[in-house]
Amino acid sequence: MEKVIVSQLRSAEWYEGSDRNAYIHRAWMRRGLPDDALDSTKPQIAIANTASDLTPCNMHLNEVADSVKQGVWAAGGVPYNLPVVSLGETQVKPTAMLWRNMAAMAMEEMFRANPIDGIVLLGGCDKTIPALLMAAASVNLPAIVVPGGPMLTGHFRGEALGCGTDVWRLSEEVRAGTITNDQFQQSEQSTIRSKGHCNTMGTASTMAVVAEALGMSIPGFAGTPAPDARLLKMSHQTGGLIVEMVEQGRRPSDIMTKAAFLNAIVAVAAVGGSTNSVVHLLAIAGRLGVDLTLDDFDSAGAGVPVLANLQPSGAFLMDDLHRAGGVLALLSRIEDLLNPEPITVTGVPLVDYLGDQPVYDDTVILPRAAPLMDDAGIAVLRGNLAPQGAIIKPAAATKKLLQHVGPAVVFDSIEDMRARIDDPDLAVTADSVLVLRGCGPRGYPGMPEVGNMPLPRKLLEAGVRDMVRISDARMSGTAYGTVILHVAPEAAAGGPLGLVRTGDIITLDVENRSLNMDVSAEELRARSQSPASEAAYAQPVRGWERLYVDHVMQADTGADLDFLVGSSGDKVSRESH
Ligand code: FES
Question: Do 38 and 50 reside in the same domain of the chain?
Fold first, then answer.
């Protein structure tokens, strides 16, 4: 492979020369490094590391970073551990999504500010890979994702537990009275069996698939379980590859083209991936100036069969997918649906890795002739309830509810919903449509994963297990149900979701991609003069929340901050001394 001229290495702007500034940059970094470590021939590689004891799914990434480091050294580069903002999905309040853009912004600034030529992105838990990719897209330095990998399967009373999905299921069983709370509590010890992220096809697993389908990780890496020795082997390999990428000048904008994004959408559909991938892919594309729209998800995903028999849509878990052949084996079964052009971090197109991938278990990676669902993907709905769009994941929904007409039962906030949902006097039937607002990017703020709101206890006890639910919120990738999400504009941004009243008739028609309330335009205009609840959308007064609320965009464009859209490159114009 041809190498770039060494003086073109970005880090030479810090280290090359005999003036005082170059002296300072070098002297403070030496600290035992080999004499030639800061020569302008040596690619300087940051390992953007989201390891944190408070991000349990990423706790093991320091060990992974060590393997990357060895690979960088072996290839002639110089590695640096760069701890970056980390987000533990289950831990941070009010919701990790509030902090995704903050993490991405902080990462971007540190990538640009430091003397580095390439970056290895260590992620895992839900928001970490999206934030890393958004940041890498913004600075457009050579970058590769190392997916931290899913945990091994835990078991409770002899049955496999899908972490996330089975928490939702078991907690609903408690509310329905079919298991005791004690039994539910006992399962807590078994849910998280090992290091790694959630083992369903939730958001973390989906984003690892996304990174691979975009071409941003070594093909065959996604889905490797966190405790598997091959994770460290491929991390070492990644360390070598990033040095090569710097030498060849291969950047994220060369890899993450529009065609690569469409491939990622197809891959997400085929694995029955998380709806959260929609806001993340839109935000990453926005950072690159790639013209990706909500409608691309519907059109690119149309006709893609779900071949991954994985929770929450199917039966198995990520460990099973890896055993059955892994993500590449699954993608090889839909190779004809992928664009063959986009290259990966290796410089070779993704499809070139697919030809001879064996499948070892057809019950996990389903044959094309017998998919879990024929035509899944993400359906984009529009109508007078969601003029800019809303989404639903049909693979996780109840088929007969995909066409539904019913009266709205409206909740103005998550607190309102929690206070009333189990009220025996709540006027609700299985045909009702539960509407939750005040949970969008601006309204909450941060767009939490509450769209899969619990069903009323009295209906659960009567055997109801799914209802149509509509909100401006997101849903956990491990959740399921006939749940319409990401309604845009959200209620707090003046969207008509804020004008729905209990009793309004709502019509959902997924086949025709429509979501409407049976309320005239004239009546909606009259209602808009007196919004339902201003109090639910109180404005934060300071700090990140203030900045976020003032600048966050709506879900249909990725919920990034408006001033972060568009790549700003790696240039730093002024010296520090
Ligand atoms: Fe981290 Fe699920 S909580 S991936």
Answer: yes
Nearest CA to ligand 1 atom 2: 198
Question: Does the pLDDT at position 1 exceed 70?
Answer: no
DSSP run (H or E) holding 46 = strand 44-49
- Residue 34, in any domain of the structure: yes
- Ligand 1 neighbourhood includes 126 CB (under 6 angstroms): yes
Residue 83's DSSP bridge partners are 49
d(CA 323, CA 290): 35
Q: Does one domain contain both 517 and 386?
A: yes
Model confidence over 117-144: pLDDT tens digits? 999 999 999 999 999 999 999 999 999 9
Domain interval for residue 407: 379-557
The CATH number of the domain holding residue 547 is 3.50.30.80
> If you average pLDDT over residues 344-350, what whole number do you get?
98
| Ligand 1 touching residue 197 (CB < 6 A) | yes
Between the CA of 34 and the centroid of ligand 1 the distance, in Å, is 39
User: 21: Cβ below 6 Å to ligand 1?
Assistant: no
Confidence at 459, pLDDT banded by 50, 70, 90: very high
**In the beta sheet, which residues pair with residue 365?**
308
If one counts every other C-beta atom within 10 angstroms of the C-beta of residue 21, the result is 14
Query: Please, which residues have CB within 8 angstroms of residue 525's CB and are 6 or more apart in sequence?
Result: none
Domain membership of residue 363 (yes or no) is no
Q: Is 198 near ligand 1, meaning CB less than 6 Å away?
A: yes
Question: How many domains does the chain fold into?
Answer: 3
- State which ligand 1 atom lies nearest to the alpha carbon of 90: 3
- Please indicate, yes or no, whether residues 388 and 520 belong to a single structural domain of this protein: yes
Phi, psi (rounded to 5 degrees) for 277 = -60, -25
Tell which residue, 138, 170, 117, has the closest CA to residue 11. 117
Separation of CA 476 and ligand 1 centre (Å): 10
What is the atom index within ligand 1 of the atom nearest the CA of 163?
2
pLDDT in tens, 527-560: 988 755 455 577 888 999 999 999 999 999 999 9
Residue of 456, 454, 459 whose CA lies nearest to 476? 454
